[in-house]
Amino acid sequence: MNNIYKSCVCLLFTALLFSSCKKFLTQTSQDEIRPSTANDLNQLLDGEGYPYSTYTDGYTDLLTDDIQSTGIPSSDPTTYTIYETNGTPLFTWDPTAFDSTSGTNIVNLSGVDSWKIYYSKIKGCNVVLDYLDKVSGTDQEKNALHGQALFLRAFYYLKLVTLYGQPYSGIGIDPTTSLGVPLVLSSKVTDAKPVRKTLAEVYSQIESDLLIAADLLKNNFIPGNTFRVGHIAAYTLLSRLYLYMGRDQDMDNVIKYATNALAEKSGLTSLTNYVISATILNSNGIYDYTMGPEVIWQYGANSTASANFFPGALSTGAVLPPFSVSPGLMNLYNQGTDTNNLGDLRYRLYFVKNSASPAWPYRSYKISASAAKPYDARGIRVAELYLNRAEASIRRYKKMANSADLSQALSDLNILRQNRYDTRKTTYTPVNITDADALFKFCQDERRRELCLEENFRWVDIKRWGLSVTHQYVDAVGGTTTYTLTSGSKMYALPIPYTAMNRNDQLQQNPR
């Protein structure tokens, strides 16, 4: 990290974060250093725009039906109490979980204050966007930076609005009046405190940023590795955006952009390649870009090192920690018949398990805990494209009964599944469901099998499908209490953290 980068970060972000420095953009001393070249902005985007070394959103898994409560192991209560303490407010959908007055101030744990994390990154993107016309460099260099910064800003806003807003097409939700999040689109310092925009306004801005980004990136930038975004990542995020919007008219765009991306990058990683023997499997994880062609973009600090809610390693191998992978998720996988047919390999490769017999998964393992893997199991994979297109095709098939949509959905699901099953000695049997409702349910389950404990997918899916979730909570002394998140719950829109509410008295808190 060179001096120009350090100076940019220090000067620009001190000005952005503290109102006492609000004159920074209009009054500077002669010895202050501003970015002057496209390369300076490139370094700035690396450090303050991209989410490298950032741990984010792992807490949302506790809100879903992918996690169960098992209580504190009696064999080692001291070690495991912290996980029970940290996770309980989330698992029970405590409406005060993100307030400083709750039993444990979880907002201060790494990766939990999503509001602060994502708006900080948005600031970095806005600085790059605001300085593009003020620095030297070729049009191609500037356009490449422009596209990346717009993509990242859109990515962060989609994260924010799906965490703190209601589902765009939820029952009883009017996106033109239902609140999303504030839109901050400039690094210019002002005394005005941003207010929340509607869901329609936020999604429209995300759509606009992504459409421009896709064009700029396609014509000006080829990522040198999976840690930079290009136009295929933009196409994929557009397909995700329209799927999350969820109207009938959005399904055409889901299919369009998924198809555009798959036309250029369709390869999936065959999990059979991870099988070393019937009892030994490669533990690198699906997000290890050296194992196959599937990763489009990846980011974040390796979450296996984070132990806020799930231990990185069990103190006693036979126990389960207070929160672990649920039977509801585990029972969705075909676990094979014998050592010659291990079935759906995701069951064996996507989770860390305890050493009991039978072993039970307790946390995600989509990236190795090895120090040689400093990146996380977060980002964009080709698998999502097949699932997005399949779901949208089924939606269209249900509405219009076009056999081409049925064929497309079945093809997409079977291409994905064929790469997930043990095919060393057993031929994969394709799915051939023709009933629209049954196929849609199968697609929902397949999406859960593939994308579990990753990128907030399950939490957003629960919201946009209007699902209810029931948790059986086991407390520190073994007592059991039932908690239910009802369909259309107010808690679909998470409470804004107290840290944001304290800084901005113009923010309207979500109903609880």
Please write out the topology.
Layout: H1 3-17, H2 38-48, E1 67-69, H3 77-91, H4 114-131, H5 139-164, H6 199-220, H7 231-245, H8 251-264, E2 295-298, E3 323-325, H9 327-330, H10 346-349, E4 351-353, E5 361-364, E6 379-381, H11 382-400, H12 403-418, H13 436-451, H14 457-464, E7 469-474, E8 480-485, H15 498-503
Antiparallel strand pairs: 1-3, 2-6, 4-5, 7-8
What is this structure, in a nutshell?
This protein has 15 helices and 8 strands. With 512 residues, the chain is mainly alpha-helical.
Task: Describe the structure in your own words.
It contains 15 helices and eight strands. The strands form four sheets. Strands 1-3 form a two-stranded antiparallel ribbon. A two-stranded antiparallel sheet has the order 2-6. The protein has a two-stranded antiparallel ribbon with strand order 4-5. Helix 2 runs antiparallel to helix 4, helix 2 runs parallel beside helix 5 and helix 6 runs antiparallel to helix 7. The radius of gyration is 23 Å and the shape is globular.
